[in-house]
UniProtKB/TrEMBL annotation:
<keyword id="KW-0238">DNA-binding</keyword>
<keyword id="KW-0804">Transcription</keyword>
<dbReference type="InterPro" id="IPR036390">
    <property type="entry name" value="WH_DNA-bd_sf"/>
</dbReference>
<protein>
    <submittedName>
        <fullName>GntR family transcriptional regulator</fullName>
    </submittedName>
</protein>
<dbReference type="InterPro" id="IPR011711">
    <property type="entry name" value="GntR_C"/>
</dbReference>
<dbReference type="Pfam" id="PF07729">
    <property type="entry name" value="FCD"/>
</dbReference>
<feature type="domain" description="HTH gntR-type">
    <location>
        <begin position="2"/>
        <end position="69"/>
    </location>
</feature>
<dbReference type="GO" id="GO:0003700">
    <property type="term" value="F:DNA-binding transcription factor activity"/>
</dbReference>
<dbReference type="InterPro" id="IPR000524">
    <property type="entry name" value="Tscrpt_reg_HTH_GntR"/>
</dbReference>
<dbReference type="InterPro" id="IPR008920">
    <property type="entry name" value="TF_FadR/GntR_C"/>
</dbReference>
<dbReference type="GO" id="GO:0003677">
    <property type="term" value="F:DNA binding"/>
</dbReference>
<keyword id="KW-0805">Transcription regulation</keyword>
<dbReference type="InterPro" id="IPR036388">
    <property type="entry name" value="WH-like_DNA-bd_sf"/>
</dbReference>
<dbReference type="Pfam" id="PF00392">
    <property type="entry name" value="GntR"/>
</dbReference>
Amino acid sequence: MRIPAHSVCTAIRDDIVAGVYERGSRLTEELLARRYGVSRVPVREALRTLEAEGFVVTRRHAGACVAEPTEQEAADLLEMRGLLEPLGASRAAQRRTEAHLKVLRGLVRLGQERAKRGNSDDLRSLGSWFHETLAQSTGSPALTSILAQLRHKIAWMYAVEAPADPVESWTEHGAIVDAVARGDGERARAITALHTERSLAAHRLRFGTGGERVERVRNSQHPVNMPSLRH
């Protein structure tokens, strides 16, 4: 059985985001292969992909290491998201399918219900699912991929506080979907831009001035060698 490199890549990326591997730490193929129960071939491919994405760097005499982004690089990510998510919403208004709308409306309905109950854990996952679906609705694999990378990197570099008014936040989600459903790209863009701007205050850098991680997670939650990932 050969575990696909993309599954290994996802597992390593998720563990980097979660803080299992700290910034600057070495990532040796042998140890990674043993940890995830795979051969070194998919690990090598995964590290190349993660280097292209900016999560990994190759250093002379050290090999692959977890990248150490600066505060400016982290700030740039939020700025890029502020530009690209509204663009994505505008494209979604032009290219979404009925299947996309069905999922988006269902997520908004669930989000509004959970917001009224104050279930923040559910809201976080529903929000991620909403924005992933909205990105897929653009009909642009390139834009969808870039937005996904931005979400991963922002989750790595920032802790995000729950919205002060989750009901209002999900009302904005609903307004985005309404604009997308009507094919109103300009309104979808404007509401998404406002929604994204309002979320900025909730972002807190996970790294202190000395580079230490504020929140550490020691245990991997994404084993690769599982039946569900066999192809």
